[in-house]
Amino acid sequence: MKSKLVLIAMIIYLGLQQVVFAQGVCRPGRGKGIHQRERILEGRRSGQLTSGEFYKLKKEQKQLRRAKRMAAADGRISPQERRFINHRQNKLDRQIFRLKHNDRRRVI
Fold first, then answer.
1. Which residues of 64-102 are buried (b: 16+ CB within 10 A; e: fewer)?
2. How many domains does the chain have?
3. Alpha-carbon Rg of the chain, whole angstroms?
């Protein structure tokens, strides 16, 4: 009886893990840049970002991608490099939010 309960519990646990992974949970460091890119493009489409704001954010994103490439060039990202990249990503997140909510609109 006890072994059946343990087996059922394990099956449920493994099944829930599959559901969580199927929902597209991003691994750390993989999805943040893509999400930021989507937010920038959505702000451009909706008119929340002016042309200047849009290009400024795109430039920041390009610099961040370059920093990531340079950090990974030696085959390993050190904790200091990871902290620096994470700081830049968080800074870009705040910048996207501020620029999207500063009540400036693109003239369509």
1. beeebeebeeeeebeeebeeebeebbeebeeebeebbee
2. 1
3. 20
Domain span including residue 82: 28-100
Q: How many helices (H) and strands (E) does the chain have?
A: 4, 0
At 99, list the tokens.
């620029």
Classify residue 48 as exposed, middle or buried by CB count within 10 Å of its CB (0-12, 13-18, 19+).
buried
pLDDT, averaged per 10 consecutive residues of the chain (108 residues), comes to: 76 70 50 88 92 94 94 92 94 94 78
